[in-house]
């Protein structure tokens, strides 16, 4: 990861003279690899559905930036310290984070969440998330220390289904499901499609189960230390591309 970060920083610094300077120093952007939203290629180049939109907005706004790969926990610590202007790409806004950081408008919304199960798993014809999680015979595979959003977290907190925890990344969790080591896991549809498209998992070994009571995808933002000026965020917001509509469902009022 350090090699990838250094390569990208070198590339970014070389591009800075072409950008319209609006501050004494380029704004530091922190990212953590999270496909397909933030992806680090073997040669160190950084891309992804959220990264690309973020960089396009900064270019349009004429704001010089450099990027660095930083673990998620360290990113939060840096923003809390507020020692200087720095932003993190692709974060979810919640009240706790908003107490020490500034947020941009929404950069992009993830695709809706889906259930992924082994190909030979039989889903009831009238399955709902609530019914599946009430079944004590079902093993739900979740990533350790990963936040699945308020809705799924609340459902899992009271479920009768068994919670199976893994420290692996999303691709590794999908491989565990394909191998039959658990009954199901939760993933945004675009995340699942990324791993299939890039050959990380075999589509024929898995099935996607759409449920009527699954939540919409996360809304991702630029999250900045309070040292970042309001003017920078205002210009960034003005340069953002209009949000694309998603196929997310509204949650039932009774849930």
From TrEMBL:
Gene3D superfamilies: Periplasmic binding protein-like II. Pfam families: SBP_bac_3. Residues 1-20 form the signal peptide. This is Transporter substrate-binding domain-containing protein. Residues 34-159 form the Solute-binding protein family 3/N-terminal domain. The keyword Signal applies. Keywords: Signal. The keyword GTP-binding does not apply. SUPFAM superfamilies: Periplasmic binding protein-like II.
